[in-house]
Structure formats: structure tokens, C-alpha cells
Amino acid sequence: MKRRFLFALAAMMALCAIAQVGVAEEARISENSIPVKDYVRLHVLANSDSEEDQALKLKVRDAVLDCARELLGDTCSADEAYAILAENIATVEACARQAAENAGFFGAVQAQTGVFSFPDRQYGDLLVPAGEYRAVRVLLGEGAGQNWWCVIYPTLCAIDEKGEFARESAEIVFYSSIGRWLRSALGGEE
User: Where is the signal peptide (predicted)?
Assistant: First the structure.
């Protein structure tokens, strides 16, 4: 009888471990393949590839991200975020224009919302696949220079103190209720 109990307990623990691995793998896969409709992207196109225009692009990017953060606040969905940005595109454009003028650029600055094509983009472990995405696009002057893009909702556009991309993320912890119960029943840590 004792042997059967130990065997059943070992089998149950093995199943719990397999379930935990399966949940973690499913979460990793789903994290790496968020549906296109759940994103709103930001795309900033520089006037040219000159050093000055590329530096301007980054200043405008920072201003637009700050503006978007204020507008979006505690937004709960990509649909809501896109609607807010579309309603406030004049504000986004004004932020971009002000940043450009502060940097000494007085050429055309245009912000628009729409659906645009984007290439693959890797954010740490997260791959945002190439495709058609709702986005805010900011064109500086001719818009003929190298561009910059990110995901504005959910926020994957964090910039660290060095001015480089840094993904904002909270650690995700997976657990099994059965595993916790077994550990506590057998005197292990909870």
C-alpha cells in the first residue's frame, strides 16, 4: 500500500512538473507571437541620412514618445490606444514640430495615423513579425532618411539612460496550484 502511494505521488509530481513546463512554454510562445491587432506602432522617418537629420529624428522620437505616454496614460487596449492617438494626431504633430524647431529644423513635420508595412523587429525575446500594423507615422521634411520604429502600445519603446532601446518588462512567474499544494502537504516550501 505504501509503495502504491509513493508511486502515485511520484507520478503526480512528474505530471505537475510537465504541466509547469507546458504552461511556461505556452506563455513563451504566446509572448513571442502577440497578434498584430494588439499593437500600435510608431514610425519616425528622418529628412535624410545626414548626421544632423538622424540626430533630429531621435529628438523628435523622444518628444513623440513623451506625448504618447501622456495621452495614453492607463490605456487598456490597442484599439483604445489607436483611437486616442488618432483623435489627438494634431497634438502629436505639434509635439514633433516643437521638438524639431527646438533643434533648429523648420522644414515640414507631418504626423499621421494609418496602417503601414513594417519589417520584423526583435525586442529581447519578443519578435514582432513583419506585417501591416496600425501606427503613428511622423515624417520629417522629405522623409527620405533612415527611419526608426517601435511598438508604442503596448510600450516597447523604452529608452535607457544611454539613449538605447531597453524593453520595459515585468518578470512573469508561473506556478502550479497542485505543485504548491503538494509541497505544502509534504512539508516543503510554499
Answer: 1-19
DSSP class of residue 165 equals B
Number of H helices, E strands in the chain: 5, 6
What are the Cα distances from residue 96, in Å, to 79, 81, 86? Answer: 23, 18, 15
Q: What's the CA gap between 162 and 159, in Å, rounded?
A: 8
Q: Which residues contact 111 (CB under 8 A, 6 or more apart)?
A: 64, 89, 92, 93, 96, 136, 137, 138, 139
pTM for this prediction: 0.65
Picking from 156, 149, 157, 110, the residue whose alpha carbon sits closest to that of residue 133 is 149
What's the residue count for the chain?
190
The pLDDT tens digits for 41-77 are 999 999 999 999 999 999 999 999 999 999 998 888 9
Supply the DSSP symbol for 159. B
**Cα dihedral 161, 127, 28, 171 in deg (nearest 10):** 10
Give residue 65's pLDDT.
94
Please tell me the distance from the alpha carbon of residue 155 to that of residue 134, in angstroms, as a whole number.
Answer: 14
- β-bridge pairing 131-140 and 40-45: parallel
Distance CA 136, CA 189 (A): 49
Is-contact 113 68, C-beta < 8 A?
no
